[in-house]
Design goal:
Layout (H helix, E strand, L loop, with lengths): L9 H4 L10 H22 L12 H6 L10 H9 L8 H14 L3 H27 L2 H13 L4 H5 L4 H22 L3 H17 L6 H10 L27 H7 L1 H20 L8 H20 L8 E2 L7 H20 L4 H13 L12 E3 L8 H19 L4 H32 L3 H11 L4 H13 L3 H14 L4 H13 L3 H13 L6 H18 L2 H14 L4 H13 L3 H14 L3 H13 L3 H14 L3 H12 L4
Antiparallel strand pairs: 1-2
Length: 642
């Protein structure tokens, strides 16, 4: 019976037992449920400990993000609070990744464990927040269990880059719990704590921007501050701690400071995303149609969580309007049902929670090229779970009213059904976790369950490239290019492949396609494009173009010794000896190799700096293990004399 919670424990409804751990029996039940919840979550997700960094965003967020590699210090804190890097303003998330670097260095295991710990903590907090607000142990535990073990949440937990999702949810739940504490005895200090926790949530990810609206729903149910006080047991609340009701005007005014925080974060977020041109403008009717379809698909995947993928390609103008129409009818039908059952406040709150918290991520303002994303459901799913758990329990309670024996039997059936459902979800979640075992597997699975997925094709190719299978990777890049002709990753990698094969003109065409849309490129993509373009022109003997592209490349990545060396070579061949000696010197600072000293010596000699050239030559002789080999390497690096 406790799995769904038709009835609370006796201690819960007794006036003398109002604390969360007020009686020994209740302490045992709560501690047992919390232990089971945490252990089940860890058992299902623990394989992530052995997973690598993802080749999708983890490189940008962590692996190649040198701003956080030194851990938490004054410089990284300053950077985190002021940067719009990766089209985001989420300083708390950057600090969290910097802490991982400090504690675990380049080992992804620690970062994965951090994600798992946060998800387990969020599940516990959700349980406690619901329990304190409604008084129902079983129902609260069931919602928390669904949240902890549902396959839709695998993406958030298994993907290190989604630390922002986990952190924002953590502070959202802390703020929601603190709000009840404030509502019981409204005071400035208590309100300030709610606002501070909410601001921390926004500093992790702006997905919680609808928090003030959620508080209005929370006032309506289960707190009962709106209209008629505590809803009562018949409306899914069993608590003896009455909260003073307030007028609607008061409740709205009360939320204004929080709404101001929402507005501030919205401005910062838009500046980050639009300033970096991360937005992707599909026609407005298409965006609206995709939003309607996505709402329905999130519900479908909640009920039947199959064909989950890390990236769902946006249909664009090829969207199926018949599917949109069906989705609209489904959503309208649920809305009408909720309206007809308006007395059951939890249905209204659950539905508006789901619909409202998805608004920032639903794609009316399109950012990126995804149609939807499993991670976007992390917060909204709670509303669906509330509707379902409280709705089923309430329906059974109504059907067995005045029939104590039938109610007990129904409670037992519901408990067994709830446990079976959680076990089934656990199996599905573990299978979904296993897809994240490596990058090749997760993206191959995405190709199996989606169509026209150029991102998945790109990243299968990237996984194959990393394992040295260039020829196997190329068909995937060409498929990606067929799906999306302006796709940056496929153009870049096909260009690099053609360069290796000696097809320089066609390679340059692909590199130029990347530069034509460079405002959408990541820093890593830009660096590689300018570097490879420089090498391609160098191979063709066009040293002027090679020089100009390599100059940009080393500005973007001043730690690339190879690029500095090649810049020195092409600068020397174009007669720009000052640039040549400067570039060679920079390469030597980064990687002092004997053959680089030889290149520097010859450039200095050509420039008439004979004494400095002799010093460089002596240095080359001093550190060379085999001077003849060093001369050969220098000759190979310089290439044929034009």
């Amino acid at each position: 019976m406790s799995a769904v919670g038709l009835e609370p424990c006796k201690e819960l409804s007794s006036p003398q037992h109002t604390g969360m751990f007020a009686s020994p029996t209740r302490q045992i039940i709560l501690i047992a449920l919390l232990l089971v919840l945490v252990l089940a979550t860890v058992a299902v997700y623990y394989p992530v400990h052995n997973h690598p960094f993802s080749n999708y965003d983890d490189d940008t967020y962590v692996v190649d993000n040198t701003s956080i590699h030194d851990g938490l210090n004054w410089q990284s804190l300053k950077w985190a609070t002021t940067t719009y890097y990766a089209a985001n303003w989420h300083p708390l998330t950057w600090m969290s990744h910097a802490l991982d670097c400090q504690l675990f260095q380049a080992d992804p295991a620690g970062a994965h464990d951090h994600n798992l710990a946060l998800h387990a903590l969020n599940s516990v907090l959700l349980f406690l927040v619901l329990l304190r607000a409604t008084g129902y142990i079983g129902r609260s535990a069931m919602v928390a269990g669904l949240f902890a073990l549902h396959p839709l949440n695998v993406e958030t937990v298994a993907w290190i880059s989604e630390r922002k999702n986990l952190l924002s949810m953590l502070f959202f739940l802390l703020a929601l719990g603190a709000y009840r504490w404030y509502a019981r005895q409204p005071r400035v200090g208590r309100y300030a704590l709610v606002a501070l926790l909410y601001w921390f949530g926004l500093m992790a990810k702006p997905q919680v921007i609808t928090f003030p609206c959620i508080l209005l729903l929370w006032d309506y149910w289960p707190l009962g501050r709106m209209f008629s006080g505590v809803p009562g047991a018949s409306n899914g609340v069993r608590t003896t701690q009455a909260i003073p009701p307030k007028s609607l005007a008061w409740l709205l005014i009360e939320k204004l400071p929080l709404m101001a925080l929402s507005a501030l974060d919205a401005v910062l977020t838009m500046k980050a995303q639009f300033g970096s041109h991360a937005e992707n403008w599909f026609p407005k009717p298409v965006r609206v149609g995709n939003a309607i379809l996505s709402y329905a698909l999130y519900l479908e995947k909640t009920v039947w969580p199959t064909k989950l993928a890390l990236f769902y390609p946006h249909p664009g103008t090829g969207i199926s309007w018949a599917r949109v129409a069906v989705a609209f009818v489904v959503l309208l039908s649920i809305t009408l049902l909720v309206i007809l059952q308006w007395r059951q406040r939890y249905l209204t709150v659950g539905w508006l929670w789901f619909a409202g918290t998805l608004v920032p991520m639903i794609g009316i303002v399109q950012v990126g090229e995804q149609a939807m994303a499993d991670r976007y459901a992390y917060l909204p799913l709670v509303g669906v779970f509330l509707m379902f758990v409280w709705g089923v329990a309430g329906l059974v309670a109504w059907a067995t009213r005045n029939q104590p024996e039938s109610r007990r039997r129904a409670g037992t059936v519901l408990a067994g059904t709830g446990i079976a459902a959680l076990l089934a979800l656990s199996v599905m979640t573990r299978l979904q976790v296993d897809y994240w075992n490596d990058n090749f597997t997760v993206w191959t699975h995405a190709l199996q369950v989606t169509e026209g997925n150029w991102v998945a094709e790109d990243l299968v190719g990237a996984a194959l490239l990393k394992s040295g299978k260039m020829e196997a990777a190329m068909p995937h890049y060409y498929k990606a290019l067929a799906y999306s002709p302006n796709d940056l990753a496929s153009n870049l990698n096909i260009g690099a492949y053609l360069e290796v094969k000696g097809n320089f003109p066609e390679a340059i065409e692909h590199f130029n396609k990347v530069l034509a849309h460079k405002i959408m490129a990541t820093p890593v993509q830009l660096i590689k494009t300018y570097t490879d373009l420089g090498y391609t022109y160098q191979s063709m003997g066009d040293y002027v173009q090679a020089r100009e592209n390599l100059k940009v490349a080393v500005q973007l990545k001043p730690t690339d010794a190879k690029a500095w060396t090649n810049l020195g070579v092409v600068a020397q061949k174009t007669g720009d000896l000052d640039l040549a000696t400067s570039a060679y010197s920079k390469a030597i600072q980064l990687q002092p190799l004997s053959w680089r000293y030889l290149l520097l010596s010859r450039a200095l000699e050509q420039a008439g700096h004979h004494e400095q050239a002799q010093v460089a030559l002596e240095k080359a002789k001093k550190i060379a293990l085999n001077f003849d080999d060093s001369e050969k390497l220098a000759a190979e690096a310089f290439g044929p004399v034009s």
